[in-house]
Structure formats: C-alpha cells, structure tokens
Amino acid sequence: MAGAGGSALRELLAGRARKRKSSFGSTAELRAAALRLLDRHQKLSELLLEVEGSVKPAGEGGIEHQESSSESLIVSVLQEQASRLGVPAAVLAAKNAVTKIEQICQSSASPSQAPLLNLDQREKLSCLLRTAKDLLENNVFSRSHFCQEIWKMKDLPVLEAVWHLHTNGITGLAELLESVDGRAVEEWLCSSLCALCERAEGPPQDTENVGLILSDFAIMFLQNGFQPSELGRKLELKKVPHICHAVLQRMLTWVLDAVGKEKEEDVSTLQAMRFWLNVFDVSIYKSAVHPDSLQQFFRHTLTEILTYNPLLKVSDAIHKQREWSFTRTCSLLTTLYCKLFVAFSAKESICQLQRVLETHEVNWQHVLSCVSTLVVCQAEAEQLFKDLLSHLLIKAFENYDMENMITAFLIARQAALEGPAVFMPYSEWFKASFGNASSHHGSSKKALVFLFEFLSELVPFEVAPYLKVHIMYPPFVPTKHRSVLLEYITLAKTRLADLKVAIEDMGLYEDLSSTHESMQPQGQALRDVEKALQIFENTRKIPTSVIEASIFRRPYYTSWFLPALLRPRVLPKSPDARMAFIDSLKRADKIPSNLYSTYIQACRARKEKMLQEESKVESSHSKEPAEHLKAELAALRVLIVDQAKHEDVPAQIAVISDRLSSALGHNSDENEAAALNSRIQVNVCDPSLEPCHQSVVDLLLTSFCQNLIAASYFNPPDRQGPCLSLFVKMMCGHRSLIPALLGRLCQLIYHQGPSLNDAHILGLAALMIHLCESRSLIPEIEADFGISQPVAEKVLSISEFWSCLLVCRTEESLSFCTRFCTAAVSYLLCKFSSFSCDDLCALVPPSLVKKLQHVVPRLSLEARGITSKEGKADLGWSSLMSPSLNYRRASLCLWKQARFQELVKGKAFQLSFREWLLLELEVHPEKDVLSASERQDFHYWAIYQWYLPAPSASGGCDGDLEKACGIIMDCILDFSQRLDLGGCGQLRSVSPDILCKLQEMVLELGCRRKPLSGCLDAKRHFLFEILQGRLKDRHHGSALGEQLWRQQELLLHRRILVGLPASTLIATCRKGKKTLLDCEDFFHYVNSELKNICSRGYALSYGITAHFFRGLLNASLDCEESAEGVNDVLTACQTKCPIVLFSAVLWWPQLEPVLCSQWKRLFGAPLPEELERLRECQSSAVGFLSSGQVFPLSGPPWISAAFLHCTVQQHSPRGRERNALRRLGTDTEQFLVSLLFFSLMDLISAKIAPKEGVDFQTSLEWALEILQCLEERGISWPLLFLSAEEGSRKYSVLHCAASERHSRLLPVAFYSLTPGFHHELLTRQHFFLYVALNLYIQLLQLFVEGKDLPQPEQADPLEVISTARQFLLGAIPRCPAKSFGNIGLVSECFLFYHSEMTVCSLCILHATLELHWCCLLITRSAVPFCNTGVVEDTCCSTSATASALLLPSCRLHLSQQH
Predict the structure, then answer these.
(1) Quick one: CA torsion of 627, 633, 637, 643, rounded to 10 degrees?
(2) How far apart are CA 580 and CA 660, in angstroms?
(3) Strand pairing partners for 782?
(4) Under a CB-based contact definition with an 8 Å cutoff, are residues 308 and 256 in contact?
(5) Alpha carbon of 1373 to those of 32, 1368, 1390: distances in Å?
(6) C-alpha–C-alpha distance, residues 1111 and 81, integer Å
(7) How far apart are CA 220 and CA 165, in angstroms?
(8) Please, what's the largest Cα pairwise distance for the chain?
(9) How far, in Å, CA of 41 to CA of 50, rounded?
(10) DSSP-H helix ranges across 499-619
C-alpha cells in the first residue's frame, strides 16, 4: 500500500505536470484539488508512512523543496480532516499514529505476544517514527493524547515498540507509564520483560536489541523508582515511582522463587533469569543514574533477598546449613550476591547484613548463603565477620539474649564451612570465644549458666562434628561450677550416641569443619598416622597430640591409632621415618612390649612371604593374571583403531581394570583407605620396583604407546575420541599401581631418556598429557632427589613431578628434552585444539612449555626473534611419526605456529628472565651442545636483545640494566644456595658464562653512572641493596637452619663480590667541584653482615680485603687528587669500619706488593700518606721484635697493636714476646688492651675454627703474657669484656670490628684466662667480680641455647662451665666488700635472661642463686636478690633454700639435655 500510495502521490505532484499544462490558476487551487483527491482515496494513518517516498532520489534537484512540500502536505491533510472532524490536528495525528502502531504490532506471524519486532515491523515503525518526529517539530502531534491512546489499544504494544518511542524522543518511558493504571502496566511490563529475557539466546541482532532494551528500562526504573530524596521528585510523575518499585520487586520475586527449585526449572527459564540478573551490573548505569540511587537500589534488593519468604526456623538452619555453603547454593543466588557486592565494600555489605538481622525476620538460607558468598569472595570479610561475631556475643551476654547468640553461632559455623583458607575453623573460634577465663561467660555464674543453657537447647538439633568440638574443647569453667559442664557433656554424649557416633573414636587430626560426614575410625586412624609422621619428619619429635592421646584418650590410641601405625610391612634396609617414629614411641614407653614384638614378627613373616613369591615368579600360576591382562590389552587395540567400535572401548577398559586388579593382587579396604590419603614416595635417584609390579606397568605402558601409534595411523588425536583418556583414568583408579607407575616413568625419563626411540617418546609425551588431565586422581608426590636438591623437601603435584624429571644439562638431555616437549605440546595442541589457553594450562605442566621456550632458541638461530606474526607454519601430528623425523626442524616448526605463539603469551606459560637464567645455569658448559662462542652469542641475544628491552609484564627488565643485574645475582645466589646437582651426587659450580655477563653489565653500569651530587643524598649502591635485601625477612624454620642458610648466603655474597670488577665496591659523588669516594654502603654491609663470616673474628678474608683496596685505588682515578681521596677513605675506616684496616694489617705481607705495584702503574707517584703509614707500622713492628728498635705509637693505638700482634704470630720465635712487651714505653694502656683483644680473638678462633692455622696453646700463652704485662703496669682491663653500652666506650672500635659470634664467645675466652687471674687482681680491680658474674651468666645462656659454644671435640662446654663456676666460688670469698656494690645489676641481668627463656631457665636460676648466696654469706651485706628489699637473713635463707631445692632438678635437667 505504501508503494502504491507513493506512486499516486508522485504522479499527482510531478508526472501529470509534465504531460499537460495545469488547468489550475494558482498553487492554492492545486493544493485544494490535491486534498480533495487524497480525502477521496487515501487513509490518513497510511499517509504517515509516505514521508520517505516524497523525497526525490539523490542527484535530482529540488530535494529540500520536495521535503518541505511533503511535510506541509501531510500537515495540510491533517488540518483539513481535523477541521472537518472538529478535533485538534495534534490529537488527530496522535490517534492515527497509535492506530498505525497497533497495525504494525499485530502484523506479526507469531500467535503469541512477542516482546520483539521482526525486520518488516521495524522498518514500518521506523518510517512512522520519522513522520511523528517531523510532526512534533511542527507542533502537530500531542504527546499526552498519544500516551493515553496507546493504552487503549486492544492488545498492549510490543515492548520493543515502546522502547523505540523512548529512544527516538516521541515520548519517554516515564511519561508513557504515568498515563495508565498502575496494576495493568505492572502485569504487562513483567510479562514482557520475562519474555524479553527468554529471547536473549536468539539471533545476534535480537540479542543485541534485548541487551539495549533491558539496560534502558533498568536505567529508567532506577532514575524514577530510587531517586534520592534530597534531589526531589518530579511533581508530574506520581504513578511511575510506584510502578518502577513494583516491577523490580516482582522480577526479583520471579528469580527468588526459582532459587529453591533450580533443578526443577526449565533450562531456558533459568537462562532467562540469569539474563535478568544483568540488571544488577553496575557498569550499565555509569553516569546515567545517581550513585545514591544505585546504592539505594542495591541496598533495597539485598534486604529483600535476606527477608524473602522467612519460613525456615532456626532449628532448620542448624540442621541444614551445611547444604547452604557457597558451592552448594543455587548459582542464581550466588551470582546475584556477587553482583550486589560490587556496589558495596565488604564492610558496607556486612553492616547491611547486620542491620537486616537486627530489624527483620529473615530467610536463614539466604542469610547464611550470603555469609558464605561474602567470606569466599571478599578477602577482608574474615576480619569483619570476626568483629561482628564479637559484637554479637557482647550484646548476647549483656542482655542474655538468645537471638544474638544463635545468630553468632550460625554465622561462625557458616563461615567456617568454607574452609580455613577463608575463615578460621569452628573449633578455633569456639576455643577463642569461650576457652579461657577472660571470655564473655567468665564474668559471672549467670553468664556461665546462660551459655550452657543455650548449648543445651542446641543439642537436639546438632550434628556430630559440632558436638565433638564442644566436648573436645569445652568452655572454660571454674572448678566450683564443674557440674554445669559435666551435665552438658553427658547430654552431648547422649546425642552422639543417638547419632551412632562415639567420641572415643574421634581422630587426632579430624577436620571438624568438614562438610562431609565423619570418616570411619579405621580411615581416620590411617589419616592420623600420616599426619603424625609428617610432623615427626619435620620436627624429629613425637607430636604433642600423640602424647596427649596416649594419656587422655587411651581407648582410641590403643584400639585404632597403634594398629594403624603398626601395620605389618617389609621393613626397609635403612630406617625410614615410620621406623624412627615407632622407635621413638617405643623408647618413650608409648607402645606396649607385646604389641611391638607382634609387629616385628609380622614384618618378618611378610618379608619371608615376599621372598617366596619372588622365587615363584617363573611359575605358571603367577604368570596367569599377567597373561590374561596382556590378552585383554591386545583386544583393546583392535577396538581403538576402528572408529566404528569406539563405543565398545569403555566396556573393554572395565574388563582390563578387573584383570589389572587380579595381576596386582586385591587390596583390602584398609589398604585402599590408606592409599587414598597417603602421599606417594618416589626415590628419583634410585627408583626400585617390585618385579611383579614392573612387569604389569611395562605391559600397560607398552599398550598405551602401541594404541596411540596405531590409532594415529588412521586419525589425528583430536578424532581419536576419549579412548586413551579413559585408559589412563583407569590406571589412576588403581591407587596401589601409581607408585610403581611413577617409579617406572622416573627410570625411563630421568635415567634412560636419551636412549628412548621416537615411538617411546611420542607415547610417554601423550601419557604425560593424560596424566595431567587425570591429576585429581593422583595423590601428592614426595620425591627424593638426593641431598641439596631444591625440591628435596617439597610435596609435588603430578605436573611439578614431570617438570623435575625433564632436565636440560648435557647435550644428550637437551636433545631428549626438546624431543619430548615438542611431542607433548604438539599432541596437546592437536588433541585439544578447541581449548582456550587457560584450559590448556590444566593439561600440560607450564614448566614444560617454558623449557621449550628455553631450548628451541638455544638450538636454532632461526627461532630467535620470531613473533606470532611470522607464525604461519604448521606441524602436523603425522609428521611427528615420520621415520625421517628431524626434531630440531620439528621443534622450530612448532615454534612458528601461531597457536603456539598465542599459548606462550599466556601468563602461566611466559618464560621470565629469572626462569630462563635458572634453566641456563643448569646446563653444564663442558657438556653443552653449543660451543663456547655459540653459547656466548646465545647469551648475548637472550639478555640484550630479548629480556633486557622486554617489559616486566612479559618477564623482561623494562630496559633497566640495574634490574637485570639484580635478577642475575638473585638467580646465581639461589642456584648456588641449593647446591644444584648435575645428576644425583655430583656437585658443580655456577656457569662462568653467566658470571661473565654479570661482570660486563656491572662494568657497563659503572661506566655509564655519573658521580651524584651530594654524597648524603645519593642513592644507595644497588649492589649492596640487592645483597642486603636477600637477607631480610627470610624464614627457614629452625634457628639452626636460618643460621646455616645465612652463613652460606654470605659466603656466596663474598664470592660474587670478589668476582665483580673491584671498582664496583666504591661509589663516587660530587661535593661542590670536588669528586669524592663514597664507601658508606660497603662499610655498612661489612659491619652488619660480612664481618660475621670471618673466621679470625677481627679481619676479613684476603680475597675481599685485596679486592676492596684494588677497587679503592682504581676508583681514585676519578678524583682530582687521587692520593687525597684514598687518604680520606682510609681515615674514615678508622671510625666507621675498622675491620677493613685490621684486615689490611693481617694480610699486609701479601697485600703490600700488590698495592704498591698497582699504585705505581696507575700514577707513578709515592704511596698515599695513609698507605705509607701502614707500611711504616709494619716495618716498625718487625724491627721492634727482631732488632730491639723502639716501637713508635703513632696514630690510633689499636692499629699499632694489630700490627704488633700479627707480626708476633707470623715472625717472632716463642719466648721473645715477654721481653718485647717490657720494652714498650709508658702511656700504653689502650695499646696493651687492644693487644689483649686481638689475642682473645685468636684464642676464640682456635676454639671454633682450628683449621685456620691458629694454635690454641700458643694464643693462650700470648694472651697470658699480655695480661701479666697489664697487671704489672696496673692497667684496668676487665671492662674490655663488656659491650660498649655496658663497659667503656673507648673500646667501641674494637667491639665494632669483632664478629657477632666472637663477641658472644668472649665469656669462653675470659674463663680460659683463669690461670692468669691472681689474688691481687680481685682486690685491685673492683669491677672484676661484676664482669666475671656477668660473663658467667652469658656463658650459661650460651649453653642452654645450644648456640656458638665450641664443639665437644674442641672443648667440652660442661667443662668450661665447671671451670668458671669453681673459679667464681673460690674467688668470691677473696673479693673486698666494694666489689659487691654492683651485684644488683647482675641480678637484673639474670632476670632479663630468665624472662626470655622458657626451657632451661632452671639452670641459670640455680647457678645464679648459688653464687648470689655465696656472695651474701661472705659479705653479710643485705644486697637484695631481685630487688625485693628483704633483710639480710631472710635473703640468705631464701637463696639457700632455693638453691638446695633446685640443685637436684637442675643437675637432672643438665644430664637429660646433654
């Protein structure tokens, strides 16, 4: 009709004018004639569609004139008819527009009312809307009448048509809704919106329209239904807010009604509901809705969900809440919660939850599922819920309110159901809340009774795990109210009996927060044994829980735990962890003798039986199950190669599984339960298999490889079906087979890999993929790689285990790794071609893809620099089976594939610079496939062209050379720390090529870096920042482990520093126009770390000492006055880092020629003044000892003393020292005390490091000579043994230079000098007794902590302590009264030690009391012990009594500890 009407109109307006002259005298007459014609032949509603036909095609003249003529024509027609009908033209236009819309909406071929228009309807409606828009512009269209008329239609409009009216500006949705009765429009909107959501899965165009319509309606609902009160509402809109509220509410109810019956709903309906949930996406509102409106809407929705249909009782919640965990809750509800929580912080969400709980009747299922969703999805929710629970308990006990109590318990249990990763277990919460006297119920008896009344009321509804918690960890109850607790326990046990659960059978490590039913006692006991063994392996002590069970839970311990532990087995030749654990329990009398004897006899019987079975391996009876298995495997191959028979494969695999069980021997239920939960032990260095198991595994592996090869001849992997996957899952289902399978794979891949042929490699590579696919069926693996392996103590998944088997160290292993990884990744990409990168991550070990990224560019120049844009090559699976296969070419072909390049861009598969370095450090340079020059080229490409410029997001260094150096140093140190093994038992060093690259980069950094202005503001030296950063926040379990790790780490630091250019130790900075040398970072590093690994105590090793001085002379080239720069640094050393100078003194005979020749080569000038002074001191010391020259004491006395001491040790014959000391001049106090200090350091070194060449007896004699000289001159020296804070600060330089261990061992050195302590010393040195007692306490502290003392082969610690004690007991009576003035300080020192100790404080207490008592008896003074202020007699009596009481127990304790 539109086309015919358009033709008539064109003929009227144009065609007839060209045929003859117009008979009309004017345009007005023409217009009137036209109107008469239209009135006679044209419908007005159809005329509204003619606007498009009235415009001339492009290229013809007069377009604007024709358009205006068309518009004015329609307006004229409307006005003409309106005047005839006596209505306004705007009203008439609105009525006709509605009539046409009704016609358009009814023209659908669908009998039902669809929410969307078809293509023809959209075109007609679009034409109509353009006309209506033109009429609006000419004020010939009434919006209000249009809105009223549209609701008078026989059938209400299609939802999409209403949306088009809104988006095209004809009338807004709000205005349209305001003009109709609310209830009718609510029904229409809800039904239309539901139908709209059901159309979301239609054609793409419809899906796009559905999303747009839904978002626009949602925005309108929020703009009008949740307008913030402060913004005010539009006065003309009175119905719209209510309608918007009502529609949203009804749609929410539509969703919530389906939550409880998700499984009963139709799939399409559930999809429609999920689509409606897009209304709760915050992103669709953006700036269209005020943030307050959005918050109000989401808060209202959350409240409605929590209070929806509150029919469940609290008793139902207690019983059913395990079914309402996050994973079990309806996905509609959890999705809705997650979308709502986007609009709130975790705190706001929990506050709203709390507000609803306090003011409404709630639906407990929705509340508790909300708790689960919050605690799982919001990381900070755990602490917020703990605060909420505390608040609820406080309110409950304040008002004795049961509602708050039950709310707290339900929330705590629900959060605990989600596991300890997100919330503390219920048992821990219950203990923390009620397990001590300060808990909420401990304030009064009324509170206590309230708690137990509440718990008692819960009992009829409780499930067993929570009752177990309440019994095993009961609330704290004062002794006088014990009956209340016993009454509750009786009630709880009765309930457990009703549930047929015995508390006596509860496991030691039972998971009381588990959502599963309680395990049977046999299975739980097996799990307890495994857990106890793990704890024993880590601590080498019997777990406390086992000891407690042997005493307090005797029935379970003897009936279940010991039988599970003492299951007969063939005992290994060398005792394993289980044997050691059993022996420890036997020694502690925790295993009855008769039970232990029975166990040993049963183990022997098991061994004899095994030997008999091995002797019968050749018999036909033992062969029979294996032969049956072999026959069924052959039958499987026939089915796999024929695609038409694939449906028979599952049945055949079931038959094979039965034959496999027969071949392996049937396991009892007990053994199966043990295998289910126990880890798999694999000795990688020496994997041994039982002969019967090895033959079975070989049959299975051979069958798998043959099946793969045979099937691949006919079909590629992606068309082979799930046959091989089912086969591998069947193998993994036999838990007893897995250890043998992994052991055999270890033999084949780790030990025999390079000798495998291509068919074996293809088969094993595909097997690896399928084993990773079945990873959930394989327990954790404890792999023993031998000592010093990085994963020696780590529990591995199957993916990590594969990674450890594939090593790249030699030419053969590199080639094998390339072949294996290429085959595995090719099979993966072909078998699972439709999988995304994220999905593939679960099917292949990421480390395997990373190894490929390391190896392929290493072996192929062509692979270096290839990106995905060049990846057009394709590696077919059939090409890998070719006899002429070249694996280098195959790996390169795989490398070029776009799919592979896409895979390696995934975060999980990216090979970072650090990972590349660790892989490269594994390679043995002497056995590498690359020559030295080829390896150098590869390293240059990888470091400078690939990783250095690459962004950090892809594992690179962002072009930062310092960052690259830091990563290299970290990797070298980590690699060296773990003492990587090149095969089991072969220790090797770090790759020199990587060290050379580090040296180059550090040197380049030094050349590029310009001196910084202002030394104080200069950036820290990156080298020492990296090294010290590694030493922070490291936790290695035991204190001994930490100490050993730190010592090893520092030795590696020293090794690396010596390997770097010497000048890198020194920084330069500008001060004004002057260049200065800055050694602050090096000094700080030496003082805080490096000095603690020097065996001499006061001097660094020669290597680092010479390296520093060489670097100092080289760096002085940057100074304007080189000699002055060197002098400034060495002068600063005297106060800031004296150990550097002492090191130079010790090594001066070797160091002097090196420095002199270097200085001469660099400058050709006399040595700097400070170096010259060192040379003169050395010469003076030699002359003083050899020819009797005067020893000048110029400069710091400790430097002169150091030279004399070192010269004595190196040159002086024994006997000359005393004469030399007597020839010293006056004013030598600090010199002699410094000399004593160095002799003490050597004395300690001889004790703890006898291999360093320092003789203990010689050092002792030299120290006694110095001590005698000090006494003869009346020089005070005891304060040397105190720290700078306790003693004299004039010795701070000496203490600063000493290592921490040597400083702690000063008490040992002090009491080694007792032969030189004469009676006169006690009377002349009034501080001597204080120092002696202080050092004695420190000696005891060292002993009980078990740290630093010399080993028994050097000196028996007990003998050292005994000698010190005897000396003090003999010396105290001879000391004058004034010597006791500082005994109180010693007591305070003791109290500090006593407060810090938890295990052996009785030893110190006894020793201190004994000595203190002795002091009091001698002096008869009222010196109070512990500052109690008691009188003399009381103090003496108390000390004597305490000493008498404690002495036997302390001796017993000492004998037990040592």
Answers:
(1) 140
(2) 34
(3) 681, 795
(4) yes
(5) 143, 9, 21
(6) 106
(7) 14
(8) 153
(9) 14
(10) 521-539, 544-552, 554-556, 562-565, 577-587, 593-615
**How many angstroms separate the CA atoms of 1100 and 1095, rounded?**
8
Q: What is the CA radius of gyration of the chain?
A: 45
Inter-residue contact 97 to 148 (CB < 8 Å): no
- State the amino acid at position 1363 in one-letter form: T
Query: Residue-wise over 886-923: b if at least 16 C-beta within 10 A, else e?
Result: ebbebbbbbbbbebbbebbeeeebbbbbebbbbbbbbb
For residue 330 the two structure tokens come to 């309806």
d(CA 1306, CA 1243) in angstroms, rounded, equals 10
Amino acid identity at 1247: K
Reading the block at residue 599, the tokens are: 């166990």
* Residue 795 Cα to chain centre, angstroms: 16
Please state, as a whole number, how many other Cβ atoms lie within 10 Å of the Cβ of residue 492: 24
What digits encode the pLDDT tens for the residues 503-532? 655 656 555 444 445 556 667 778 788 878
What's the token pair of residue 227? 């307008």
Contacts of 1063 (CB under 8 A, 6+ apart): 1006, 1111, 1114, 1115
Instruction: With beta carbons less than 8 A apart as the criterion, state whether 606 and 569 touch.
Output: yes
The residue whose two tokens read 């409950």 is 396
How far apart (Å, rounded) are the C-alpha atoms in residues 618 and 79?
A: 112
Q: What would the 3-class secondary structure string for 855-885 be?
A: HHHHHCHHHCCCCHHHCCCCCCHHHHCCCCC
Nearest to 496, CA basis, from 518, 523, 522, 526: 518
Q: For 77-133, how does the pLDDT look when each residue is reduced to its tens digit (9 = 90+)?
A: 777 777 777 778 788 888 888 888 888 887 654 444 478 888 888 888 888 888 888
pLDDT in tens, 404-422: 999 999 999 999 887 766 7
pTM for the predicted model, two decimal places: 0.57
Closest to 36 (Cα-Cα) out of 48, 28, 45: 28
Which residues lie across from 795 on neighbouring strands?
782
**Cβ proximity of 1172 and 1166 under 8 Å:** yes
Q: How many residues does the chain have?
A: 1458
Residue 751: half-sphere exposure toward Cβ, Cα within 13 Å: 15
Task: Round to whole Å and give the CA distance between 397 and 404.
Answer: 9
Residue 1171's nearest CA partner among 1231, 1078, 1087, 1108 is 1108
